[in-house]
Amino acid sequence: MDQLSVHSASSDNVSSEFEVVQAMETGLKIADNGNESDLKQNLKEIMTSSQSTLASNDTSLSSEDKSEARPDSLMLQSQENTLSKSPDDEDCILFNGVYYLGCASVNAPRSEPEALRTISILRSQQEPSSELHRSTELPGDTDTANKQIEIVLSIPSRADGTVRLLEPEGTVVMGSYKLYTILFCVRGADESIERDCFAFTESHQQSGIFQCHVFRCDVPEAVRKVLYSFELAFRSIPKSPPTEQPPTGIQLLKRSQISEGESVVAHDSSFLSPGSTEALSQQIVDDSIYGFTVSLEIKEDDGKGGYATVPWDKTSSCFKFRRNLEKKVIVTVTQTSNVELTIERCFGLLLTPGRNVKQSDMHLLDMERAVPEEENNVVGIHTVVGTWDPTHQHFALLNSETQKGTRVFLSVAADLVVQEIQEPVRFLIETKARVFPQTEKFWYFGKKILHENFFLRLNELPSQKVSKKMFEVVSVQSETSRIKWTSSPSHSSHPHPEHALSSTCPKDEEDDDDTDEPLLSGSGEVNRECSERVLSDWGDALSRWHADLSRRPAGLRSLVRAGGVPDALRGEVWQLLAGCHDNDAMLEKYRNLIVKDSPQENIIQRDIHRTFPAHDFFKDTGGLGQDSLYRISKAYSVYDQEVGYCQGLSFLAAALLLHMPEEQAFCVLIKIMYDYKMRDLFKNGFEALHTKFYQLERAMEDLMPSLHDHFKQLAIECHMFSSQWFLTLFTAKFPLNMVFQVVDIFLSEGELVVFRVALGLLLCCRQELLTLDFEGVLKYFRVQLPKKYRSDDQTKLLIQTAVQVKVNSKKLKRYEKDYQVVKEKLALEEDPMIRIERENKHLMDANMRLEMENDDLAQELNTTKLTLHTQLEKTMQHADDLQRDLQTAVEDLRATRESVAELTDENQRLLVETKQVKEMCRREMARQDEELTAKSNIISDYKTICSQLSQRIEDIQNMHKEEVERVRKEQLVNGGQSSESSVGNDAERRSREEKERLQKQIRDLELELAQTKLKLVESECKVQDVEHQMSSVSKELHATKNTWFQKTLSSLTTRKSESSTSGGGTAPLPSPTSQSNPFVSSRAPGDLTFTKRQTVT
Asked: Which residues form the PID domain (predicted)?
């Protein structure tokens, strides 16, 4: 980034809305789809529109001869040397040799890549060899120079100036852009072809469109100078407006002119402000009226040792302050008509929040200086400068941030000493302001001086001095008040609130959207804690009260006023205060009323959902709270058929339900409506309610005249904010802790409490209301005022203020009589024709309403007929479908019955077969059991034989061992004898043969034992197989039908036959007692000899 860009970006004076940056090679984000066809179309439109000259404004600019302009140099000239008079006499710098390449819409106004890409595209159009140039070349256009417009660029020297594109001759303005609408400046990269180009992004604030304008200089080095001039302009934020001629329409006459007989008054309509020409011209012939213009300017500390003028919000016609910044108030008084008066000095500059304030509420500012007429270039001007410390306690409202959509009023007064007037003259300006945080940033470019025209009526006093006349002040009237009273000569109609302020800016537009949510009804926490002393006092009072219910105990009113009824005792005390201690008949009547129908049930059902939605007892649809509230409202609408149910009645009933059952709450509601005359407010078209509005307004006029005048000027009437107060006893909008205390004191003291609480509310918030405008006041009553009384301290202060308000029944009666007189007077003064026309209009409106209702009913009737016809057709179609379904069902039933009969027969047959199978199974199982028993016996016999044979083998082996030992011994004894050797050899041979024979016999026995064991295992397997088959047959008997049953029988029969066949083909097992049993030997044990025991495997 070059040095110029660094200084521009880091400057403290440059607003954050401006940036000057160094170029980089990036791409451009084109609006629309960004494809090549859209780009070509946009560039064609730009090049076509750039050929025509924009709307021109005639000026008296002069420039050097075109022949002196050189294409290779940039002429930088001062306006004073080159222009005899610039547009609006503005200081500016002119740059020659600049070409306008065109503009393009951008989405990101502060995006450097997007701006550089726009420069690249528009610059490439100037190159005939470029593809983009050829694609965007217009038909018949062969000259590249025709695609750029030569201009003279005019850059202002101040931030509130205008950038202008002039023709090369410097006489016609081709285009102009306010400097504060320029958001971004950028130049091409040094090493690129765009180094001789620069661009700035301009904002169309109302439409939200951003356009990037691209320029080219003949000399690339001139681009830096252009951007440097922009930087200087951005930095040059004006500290104060230039000296202007007084906005006067009349030239002042010197006394010397009067003495010479020159009494002609000249007019110059060009100096008259809008709306003041007619007013001033009407006063020219009146020599006793002197015209003055008072200008108000406010400056804030800019943090650099100076003061900057605070901005003026055009949309809401108010000043914009920042918190905790020291301010200066500058008041300039200029005489505009009649004989010149000599203003000696200003001995007081006063400021206070609010309007229509008392003299004692004004706060004197410290005056720095007062500029007398001699120091001013214009005759009849006096300037006063005062210092305003916003941290002072008196200015707390003007140093607190205002909520969105609200403004505060402030009054500035200047007391002047005039030589020709005996007493000081006060000029009072009332204006509005919005207070923002200290770090807020504003646009500083707009009209920031407030002007107000005053008309001073003087009366000449008889004086002994012939050379000097003296006057006394008859009246001082502002042009704002004159316009207001002129627009309402009968004083019966109120002007729009925007007439309450005259300024050089447009009138108020609609305020910002109200984003603050009002306090929901039924919100707030109720303090249930109570000291022992208070409970003791209330306990004594209740004990005395129950002893004598005919009268209230002494000291009850003071207890109620002190802190209200303890929350735990409210249900009981409210019933005693209302006189519901003995009301069994009403309780019985309530039980009968809740079962009756009410014509207003729909309205009641709709209202209960909006009653106390913030309270847990009422927020659930269909809950216990809403059901009880519905029954009470419905019962009252049936009980009091004259009034019925009125909107707002549910809030009072809900407050009662929170402390007692619904039967007792209904009785207390009846007492309040009848004995406390609440139902009178809903009768006769709310006539009694309008009377109370008038009484409240008159009480405000007597007790708070400043607030009454403030409301009157703002066209705020009592019904705009107090209708809910009277109709719902403050239960609709305020928190519960305040609602309950108001009901306490209302039941204790009667309907007069409503006026006292209403006036107490106005007294407690009077200071805040005086600082607000029309919308702000209504929003305060709707949002801020209920939230203020969420704390117990504010509620106690309100009750204390309310009980001290000096309002009694006699005064209200007098107000009521005055209201009747005013009504009668208006009725007598009214023209009969006007009354007839009004009545005719009402009748026509009623007739039109009835016709509209008739049309609606007819349309509803037609719609109902069509709906019924459609429903009838659907019903008939449905009946036909049901008839077909019925026939199908009957047929299915018949088929089912036949199937049931067949199944019953099959079931009987299966039962018989099941019995047969069971009998056969029993027989088979018995046979198998017998076979199993026999085989088990055989197996046990075999086991016995095997054990016996094993024992016998062991015995034979032992005998063989003994015989061998014996033979060995004999051989040892007879070893020498040959005979003995031969005998030993024979014995040994015989012994070997016997051993082999015995071994063979052992092997046969072991083999036979193995075969026997194998047959035993096979028998056990067969037994298990038979048992398994029997269990399978039993299951299949119960689970299968006839076909499966036949298969099972055949399977059993087949297996039985196979078993019989296999049994006949195999040899029976040998009996242990059989003679041919090989395990039984007929040979004696002594005849056997064995040599060695072997095991056959």
From this structure: 163-217
